[in-house]
Write a structure and sequence with these properties.
CATH class of the largest domain: Alpha Beta
Largest sheet: 5 strands, mixed
Oligomer: single chain
Strand order of the largest sheet: 5-4-6-13-7
CATH architecture of the largest domain: 3-Layer(aba) Sandwich
């Protein structure tokens, strides 16, 4: 009698963890008569979604042990922000996959050590002591042989935050009110005014006029005309006086033209004195500025600064960061307070910096905030696992589901703060400092030096002339 086969099943055995028993899942079933009656076409990761309560080890970075008390209550959101957000994501994945998480605490993400080993959280993953990295990691090529990325849940970014300094600290504000073409036009007007007055007055002060005049008159020279025009520019009077109608008409229109220019210049320079300089946008701009700089005192920040390869970044670190006795690496609280006092750029996670600014700055102090590119350019940090982990695909799909269902958006809004809004731009007032008018003082100093120099040459010339006259008298005798 032949054996009859009622049903054929195709099964796939697997284990959720090495120490557990085999689990079999049915992929397809069929009978000789009906053929294929069931086929499980779901993805492998979806079919094995339930990991049946296994324990997976995870290492995550905590820089402040007090954060362990506030992983889920949104207290001190500016401390260990990315680790707290990642911890919330992993807790949701724990529920989704029916697993338990055993956490291991590290104080650093990890840097390369001797013998191709790593410290910190990356070292735990390299030694396969843990399965998951519980704190997001910036992309770095040297780590790709050790870890694999499976999700991006913390949309943070790094940048220098600063308050835009007054425009007078980077530019000569006395040349800014007018465009270059206007300055050329003003110079042309000045030259034309000097020429017309000189021509008109020279015709006026003829020898015949000087002889017939009842009052003693001194002929006006070119230097008098120049001083006359400078006085008109400054809306001041002059000792020179014209007599003929033509000269007076020229003088009238010169004063009118200079008056309109003077009003325009004065109004513009008042606005410029209260303007801020937005030109600091790149690392090069920051390097060439007079601003002091600092950075968040976290391990990865110090690592990127000290391990810079290109010449410019090495120079930036040496000049701007390592030139002083006091360390330029500081806590976000100290860095933000220095931003508040002005003339200081602080590199940190932008949402963390804005969180502290929102809490500590007055409304008028929030005006003028700007960002400059960071010392190191990195993208969004990602959650990682050890290399060739069997759970990588499962966790990758799990994090995508969390993103689709709004977890990332919800927790981003919970933990991160956008750039504080300036309530009133007019409330930010700059007091006029010495730096704002140092160009005027320089003009005065150079003018005095020039005057003294010319006076010295006049004395020498006068002595030379006297000496020449004495020689002539002796030769005559």
């Amino acid at each position: 009698m032949k054996n009859k086969i009622d049903k054929i099943s195709v099964v796939s055995p697997y284990k959720t963890i090495k120490t557990r028993n085999l689990i079999t899942e049915i992929l397809a079933e069929g009978t000789p008569k009906k053929g294929l009656i069931m086929f499980n076409n779901k993805m492998l990761a979806i079919r094995r979604w339930n990991l049946q309560g296994i324990t997976i080890r995870s290492s995550f970075v905590i820089t402040d042990l007090n954060s362990l008390k506030h992983l889920d209550d949104f207290v001190d959101k500016h401390i260990d922000t990315t680790s707290k957000l990642a911890h919330a994501a992993i807790n949701l994945l724990k529920t989704l996959f029916n697993i338990s998480i055993e956490f291991k605490i590290q104080d650093a993400w990890g840097t390369p050590q001797k013998n191709n080993t790593w410290s910190g959280m990356i070292g735990d993953l390299q030694r396969k002591e843990v399965e998951i990295g519980g704190s997001p990691v910036f992309f770095q090529k040297s780590r790709l042989d050790i870890i694999e990325y499976f999700g991006f849940m913390t949309p943070t970014r790094i940048a220098f935050i600063l308050i835009s300094p007054p425009l007078s600290h980077s530019s000569n504000i006395f040349t800014l009110p007018f465009a270059q073409t206007v300055w050329f036009s003003c110079f042309g007007l000045f030259t034309l005014g000097c020429f017309l007055l000189f021509f008109s007055i020279n015709k006026e002060f003829t020898q015949e006029y000087l002889e017939n005049s009842n009052e003693p008159k001194k002929k006006i020279t070119l230097s008098d005309i120049v001083v006359y025009n400078v006085g008109a520019i400054c809306q001041q009077g002059t000792a020179a006086e014209t007599q003929h109608p033509s000269s007076r008409i020229i003088t009238l229109f010169i004063y009118l033209a200079y008056m309109f220019l003077y009003i325009s210049y004065s109004a513009s320079i008042v606005a410029i004195l209260q303007s801020s300089d937005k030109s600091i946008q790149t690392l090069s701009d920051l390097f060439n500025s007079y601003l002091e700089v600092g950075a968040d005192n976290v391990s990865y920040s110090q690592y990127y600064f000290k391990s810079a390869n290109d010449t410019f970044r090495k120079k930036f670190y040496k000049v701007k960061m390592a030139s002083k006795k006091n360390s330029n690496f500081m806590s976000p609280e100290v860095g933000v307070e220095k931003i508040r006092h002005g003339y200081f750029a602080f590199q940190t996670e932008v949402p963390v910096g804005y969180q502290l600014i929102q809490k500590t700055f007055n409304e008028n102090e929030k005006c003028g905030l700007q960002e400059s590119k960071a010392f190191f350019e990195v993208g969004e940090p990602g959650l990682v696992m050890k290399k060739h982990s069997p759970y990588n695909e499962l966790f990758r799909i799990g994090t995508l589901k969390l993103v689709e269902r709004g977890f990332k958006t919800r927790y981003t809004k919970k933990y991160y703060v956008s750039k504080p809004i300036c309530g009133s731009k007019s409330s930010r007032f700059f007091s006029i400092a010495l730096v704002d008018c140092h160009q005027a003082f320089l003009t005065l100093v150079w003018g005095m030096i020039t005057a003294v120099t010319i006076f010295f040459f006049e004395i020498l010339y006068d002595k030379f002339k006297r000496h020449q006259n004495k020689k002539k008298k002796k030769t005559k005798k």
